Amino acid sequence: MHIAILTCTISLPGCGSLKEKRQRMGGLHERLGRNPAVAVCESGERSRHEASEWSFVVTALSRKEVESLCSDIENKLERSVDGRVMEVRREFL
Q: Would the pLDDT of 27 be above 80?
């Protein structure tokens, strides 16, 4: 079993309230957490309006599968979030 923690920091320029932040990030948990090999949570920047940090725990039988799932998550974030992915960190356990 291979495990990775993928942490992504997202910039939300012009976001003026936590309500707007929830709207802009809305559905992220449901869209990216559908795969049973992926657990997702908002892990940081919870009180800042203009930023959000999300962590994903990814598991699979091979490191190649884990890397592929992490890449898929990164691509989906780039396409679906009304913001800009500023930082991505991968940690393999």
A: no
